Here is the input.
Amino acid sequence: MAYIQFLGAAGTVTGSKHLINTSNDGSGKSGFQVLIDCGLFQGPKEWRERNWRNLPIPANEIDAVILTHAHLDHCGWIPRLVKEGFQGAIYATPPTIDLCGIILPDSGHLQEEDAAFYNKKKKSKHEPALPLYTLQEAEQSLQHFKPVPVGERIQLAPDFSFRYVRAAHILGSCMVEASLGAATNTQRLLFTGDIGRVLDHKVAPGKVVHSGPTEGESADVVVMESTYGNRVHPKEDPLPELASLISATARRGGTVVIPAFAIERTQKFIFILKHLMESGQIPRLPVFCDSPMAIKAVEIFLKHDEEYTEETRSMIRRYGSPLQWPGFTFALTSEDSKKINAVLTPSIILSSSGMATGGRILHHLAQRLPDPKNLVLFIGFQAPGTRGFVIKNKSSEVKIFGDFVPIRAQVAALEQFSDHADPPELLQWLRTFRSRPQVAYLVHGEPDASSHLQETMKGELGWNVEVAEYLEKVEISHPLSS
Ligand SMILES: [Zn+2]
Here is the structure.
């Protein structure tokens, strides 16, 4: 019996790994084994520790990996899988491969830094902490990647093929439509990965990449994300509020500091800021993009114009490459970054990390938070326990580089810029399915979010919906066994 086993992102939102075994003889040995996504567990220690455990099957018995997109919680365990002996190919769209080319080495670098920090703190020479993988191992793992264009069907084994359909979550993101069996006798599986917002520039403004997941799908088994299963995004257009926050800060002579995720959110915001300036909704302030990874990602975005929305395409037609826009400065070196500290007239600083857990944003926050003229603006989710969460919740001070920095700047948050569909948007997409699946398994959600979405889908669509459990194996009937 063929099966799917949930090796991550079950009961949590990180560590996405779903194993398909096409075995037709009950032993599990003879089957083709493919991993959909190979993500890193992040967040609480209880989950992060699972990054160090072996998979239930040896890495060298996995034949292939198919990636949905380049977020670390979907691709960040690849260098470890390769280190454990995986020898197969890793399939991804060309933009996903380009993004992994910057994200995975950066992750390896951070793993090495963490291990070094721990060793320094522990000062024990007996059991030195090791990195999960090194920068060099991350770079080596990139050799396994094979590009797959969206829509092209790829036959990986006599009884297994797949093609990518659009997920509209970030640049290059796709769902995996897999077929088990042969010719007309197939079982269709759809792995959604993360699902992007609907096509609506008021409800989900500033989308740089294709909006709206591919409609009219049909599948026998759906494995679907549920990150926002119990939350609904605000439906009003956030741009007027954004414009008034920035304009008010400029009028009082302050600077706007925006912690932003380096991939997708920063690029989206560069386009939004340009739009607001050109339409006269905000003054023409200098914009500093201060994140080397975000700048490399801008270059990757520019290379993949096949991914753009019409809105983005027309902005580039009209104003040229964002890297050349007057007034926009891209601070690649740390010298460039330091120069921003000397700018004391109104400006806008976009920097990462998005939750202020590290990176160059810390310098800007340390400098700008004590002054009430300034504005710190959050445009993304802030997980409990992060500095971003502390600042957003209006504490009086926050610890940065060992010092307590007073929070006197204005703090604001806009919640509309998520790249995950919420339940009304998910239902809107699910209603376009051509037929009802036998079963849908919910993954990639906190338990409350998944069970809330389960009830919503059962009630609204009448589907058979299960919440996947960590390490659970679910059988899929192999079409050739009946
Ligand atoms: Zn994602």
Q: What stands out?
A: Residues 13 and 444 are 4 Å apart (CA to CA). The pocket of zinc ion is lined by residues 69, 71, 169, 194 (CB under 6 Å). The chain has 14 helices and 22 strands. The longest helix spans residues 94-122.
